[in-house]
Amino acid sequence: MKPFVPKLVYFEPEALSYPLGKELYEKFTQMGIKIRETTSHNQVRGIPGETELARYRNAKSTLVVGVRRTLKFDSSKPSAEYAIPLATGCMGHCHYCYLQTTLGSKPYIRVYVNLDDIFAQAQKYINERAPEITRFEAACTSDIVGIDHLTHSLKKAIEFIGATDYGRLRFVTKYEHVDHLLDARHNGKTRFRFSINSRYVINHFEPGTSSFDGRLVAARKVAGAGYKLGFVVAPIYRHEGWERGYFELFQELARQLEGMDLSDLTFELIQHRFTKPAKRVIEQRYPKTRLDLDETKRKYKWGRYGIGKYVYRDEEAKELEDTMRRYIEQFFPGAYVQYFT
Predict the structure, then answer these.
(1) What is the Cα–Cα distance from 253 to 272, expressed in whole angstroms?
(2) Cα separation, 181 vs 171, whole angstroms
(3) How many CA within 13 A on the CB side of residue 303?
(4) Tens of pLDDT along 268-313?
């Protein structure tokens, strides 16, 4: 697929006082993209569309260039200490995505230009924890790879972390546009992860993202560039013929990665889940989706923050986990499965 190009761009005036802000303004001007001004990346108004659904779809092709003023990083998942805020939002239209609710009123894509401030805060966290390793996740609220061909913020972050003694970086993507990252001086301190799935799931529930084959080709490029490699199989979804679909996934992945150094390969396994608020938003934004959101077929599981989610029943979840682990053992016997959830 072609790399993402926004149809509309908003700039905070303050963003133009930073080198990256000036660079992006010149770039989008030369590309002939419509540019508007906004007082804050959190308060963007005037996105075109006669209906809420039309405004949502237009927002997903809108880029907002701003300044990240809150430099206290959020705590990340157990696999990383902090989320490093390079961008927020995504141009993809994955029907199941949790950003549907967490970013519900602000589906546009935001990038932050005060990179020196962000990296200085990251260095502060690294120094406070040294000599322990401090891990940063760059894709908690975005697919940073999908927009980095425009900003190169991620490339700068990779090289910043690569120059530290105790910092590590990780992120996940559904996009194949990795060529500009292959020569980054990562020094083995970045784990480049791809979100992968069966063809059925990608074709039916992940519009606006790279194809099954595109992601696997990109993974080979990344492995060849010496990055630590990981795969997030998510959401694992029980569609008709799912066993065959996921077998093909691992079979093709092994074929594509043949001859690569896979000595530090990781997998993360996440079954499909949804919340009641997410279900309402998904059905509004993707009314023709084939995604099965029948609560009567699921188990209700309480979440950490008091919001429960619907997951597969225990026996179905166990079958999914056992099947994925069996395929991984067959095709990648030296890989480490970090978790199934």
Answers:
(1) 21
(2) 13
(3) 11
(4) 999 999 999 899 999 999 999 999 999 999 999 987 767 799 999 9
